[in-house]
Structure formats: C-alpha cells, structure tokens
C-alpha cells in the first residue's frame, strides 16, 4: 500500500497478503504483532481472504465474480454500481460465491464495504470540495479490490453523554495541517481490521451532533492501516495453532478478529478525507449512498449461505443421532430450511424489484432492506434454539480432541460408544465438532452476538425502519387506509357501501 497509487488490477491472494505486511500496529496478548500473515491469531483468516482474491482470477470463478465497470476497471461485481435488476442478480451470485468459500461464516468479507464504496464515484458531488477524493478512492477500491473495514460506533464509555462532551474518547479532529487532518479517539468494533487495507471511519447515522459544538466530530475519512497513528487493540483470538482443524474447523480459519480502533493523533492526508467538520454531510452520506439498501443485500445473501450450512448440519446431525424420522425433528429441519428461503427470497425481491439511486444506479429497495435488517438479527437466536432443542446434548458427545482418537486404549471404546446411527464414530465426532464450532464455541458465541448486533442495536433497527417508512409516506398511507375504513360508518350507521344498518337484517 505504500505510495497508495491506484494500480488498475485486482489483487491476487499473494498480493493481498503482501499488502498486509506494512508495519501496521496490531496488538494481541500483550505484544505488537510483527506480521499478521504469520501470526497464529490472524494467519489462517488472512489465507481464507487470500483465497477469495485468488477466486477473482481463477478461470472457474472469474466471470461469476467479476465484470468491467464504467471506468473500464475489471472488478468484483458488487464493487461496482449495478444498473439493472439483472446486474443486481449477477452481483448476488458473486456475493454468494465468495460467501460459500467461508461457509457463510465470514461476515465482513471485502464485499461488505463495497455496499458503500460501489456508489462513491457516482455520488462524488455530494462530497463538495472532497469530490475528487471520492472518485479516486472508488477507483483504487474497485481497481485493486481493496479490503476495507468500517468503524462507526463510539465506545460504550458513557452513552448518556452528548457526543461533544466525550472528546477524550470519541473520534474528532484535533487540528488541520497542510498535509491533512489530525484525528484522535476510538471506535468499536473494527471487525477484521487487522487483515484489511484501510478503515472507513464515520459517525453512525443516528449520531446527534449539535451545531456549534459537534463539528469536530463531523468527519468521514479513510485511515490506512499503515498509518503510524492507527492502533488496533484486538479481542481474544479464537484461532490457535495448537488446535487441529478437526477440533476447530471454523474458528481456526474464519476468525475475523474484532478490534477497538484507536486513532492516536493520526494524520489523515487530505486526499483520504470525504467530510470535514460538516454535520449534515457526516451522517447525510448514508441516505445518499444507498449503503443501507446495499449492505443489507450483502448481509442477506451471506446469511442465506450460512443458513444453508446450518440446515445441512442439522439434517446430518439428526441422522447421526437416529432422530431424523421423528415428526417434530423433521419439522425443526423444515423450519430451518424455511428461514433460509425467507432470507434468500428477500434478496430476490431486493434484486428483482429495485429502486433508482443516483446516476441510474439500481438499488435494492429500502423496504426490503429494512426487513432483512430486522429479520436477520432475529434468525440466529432461533437457529440456536432449534439446534439446542433438536440435538439435545449430543454436540458435547465428543472426546476432547482429535488426539483421543489416536490413543490405543481409547480408540476401541470411542469406535463403539461414539458411533452414530448412520456414521462411524470418527465421522460422527467430526460432524458434531463442526456443529459445536458453529453454535457453541467462543467463535460460535461471537457469531450469535454478531448476528444480533452488527447492524445496530435492536431498537435502532426498528426506529430506522419507521423513519424510512414515514419519510416515504408509507405510514401516512397506512393511516389513510384506516381512515378509509372508519369513513365507512358513523354514529348513524353505514355512510357508504352495501351493508345493512341493522345487524339483525344481515342474518
Ligand atoms: C461481533 C460484532 C462485530 C461488530 N463489528 C462492527 C464493525 O465492524 N463496525 C462497527 O462500526 N461496529 C461493529 N459492531 C458494533 C455494532 O455495530 C454495535 O454493537 C451495535 O450497533 C449496537 O451498538 P452498541 O453495542 O453500542 O449497543 P448500544 O447502542 O449501546 O445499545 C445497547 C442497549 O442500550 C440502549 N441504548 C443505547 N443508547 C441509547 C440511547 N441513546 N437511548 C436509548 N437507548 C439506548 C439500546 O436501545 C440497547 O438496548 C460489531 C458488534 C459486534 C457484536
């Protein structure tokens, strides 16, 4: 990333890995990580992402994943604006193809932030004097296929305080120099940030910034991960080298470490700034960019893939337990399949019935996006409930590690006592360790927290849905519908229509 030129070809996996070796300041387990591509907490996740980049070039997947944009750049289909339902459907296939490579368990793959970046050039005018930055960043993003994380939430230091009273913690501009703005403060949670190229930093859409006092906090910019003022303080990693794939098949390769991003007097070059001390633009960009329409599209596709995986796991788990012929168990698997169909169906509606965005861009309709956003946050709770009631305690009927299978005294006992209805002991243990990694390990628990929260707190999700429906006149139309019903009658009887006034006449 040094020099930050905008080469015009998508990164390969190896180029992506090389882009991470830039001296970034990542802290974990009391040490500053020398190289995230070799550190056990990040190496396998970085390799999982590198596989996505290689797929952009592989003959078998290149055409499904990539297309040429308005600038003549070959890019991921979701990294460029879609201009028709057909292009949205093609973008969905590209998102799903990448998602399947992580079995739905990589949430913040590079296509997540494409939901904002894809329209950045088309919306460049919105950013006023910084419009050239918007165009340049789009071109670098689409041309290279950059991997961006995004941080918009302030740390939970004291939620009842006004933002401008939290200057010592929340991200704000300290000063301007000829080179750029100097920013300090922290944001949560920068998912995947340790293995990304840059962070997109902005206030959350609902941020209450008071004119005259909130301007320092009204900034939107990109922070490159090699910026000496950027520090990532990571949560406990779930990938550990001492755990065999057999014991941790998901957490050992798909852990997107969530970090607190700290900006410590970081100099952000002017060319990386989109909004500077502008309250209206600092949150207004959300509506203008179509981010909510598009990120919920990516999320819905990704969750559909994850639910396909969960439906397969549940079906195989019940067969291994010999419960698959029971009516209630079949109903549980059927419910899970239906949940997948619901989310996938919503993404079909989002693609096939779009709304116009800026400059002829086709955006998934906001009504469907708000439905995906709320439904997605509820689905995973039900998934857990179904797994835990349908499989009972069986996910824990596994020996402690793959090494137990090699123990000469244990192996005959394991083969006898751990076999499944339709599987050998080894296959049954392998299956249930995968199930437990999906729902029960620390990695599985983090996914539960992720699905519930990544799109905002539950109240905000619903408040936004109401705000959008009100803004578009839907709530007024629903109220008018009720008024129409009430206008059919008054205290004297029916005011219109064919109905009898005396209920007795009706019988
Ligand atoms: C695994 C994971 C990954 C994440 N990744 C990212 C990421 O990559 N980028 C990113 O930006 N964020 C990320 N987040 C953060 C996520 O967006 C937030 O957790 C989410 O928006 C909820 O916000 P919060 O955690 O601050 O909870 P809060 O907003 O504090 O909500 C907690 C409760 O307090 C109530 N509450 C809070 N404030 C108010 C108020 N002012 N008035 C009334 N009630 C209030 C809420 O209604 C809710 O019931 C991630 C979170 C998780 C768990």
From TrEMBL:
Binding of FAD, residues: 150-152, 191
Chain ranges of the HpaB/PvcC/4-BUDH N-terminal domain: 12-275
One GO MF term: oxidoreductase activity, acting on the CH-CH group of donors
Cross-referenced Gene3D superfamilies: 4-hydroxybutyryl-coa dehydratase, domain 1, Butyryl-CoA Dehydrogenase, subunit A, domain 2, Butyryl-CoA Dehydrogenase, subunit A, domain 3
All residue ranges annotated as the HpaB/PvcC/4-BUDH C-terminal domain in the record: 284-482
Record's keyword annotation contains Metal-binding: no
Superkingdom of this protein's organism: Bacteria
Keywords from the named record: FAD, Flavoprotein, Oxidoreductase
Name under which the protein is recorded: Pyoverdin chromophore biosynthetic protein PvcC
